[in-house]
Amino acid sequence: MSLDNASKKYLGAFNLLSWSLFSVAQVIGQLPEPIQIIFQSP
């Protein structure tokens, strides 16, 4: 396996992960305030 293929795989996985996190953030942003506070607490 060449380095380019490995890099593309990692980049694809990173893009998928960041897109998933963005989607979750969008969903949480649409929830009522008390639920948002629960998600934001450490």
Give the helices and strands, then pairings.
Elements: H1 3-29, H2 33-40
How many β strands by DSSP?
0
Q: What fraction of residues sit in β-strands?
A: under 5%
Question: How many whole angstroms does the radius of gyration measure?
Answer: 16 Å
In one word, what is the shape? rod-shaped
Give the termini distance in whole angstroms.
Answer: 41 Å
Give, in order, the helices and strands.
HH
- Overall residue-averaged pLDDT value: 86
Helical amount: over 70%
Secondary structure category: mainly alpha
Q: Which key phrases capture this entry?
A:
single chain, 42 residues, mainly alpha, rod-shaped
Overview of the structural elements:
The chain is mainly alpha-helical. The chain has a domain of 29 residues. The protein contains two helices and no strands.
Describe the structure in brief.
With 42 residues, this protein is mainly alpha-helical. Helix content is 83%, strand content 0%.
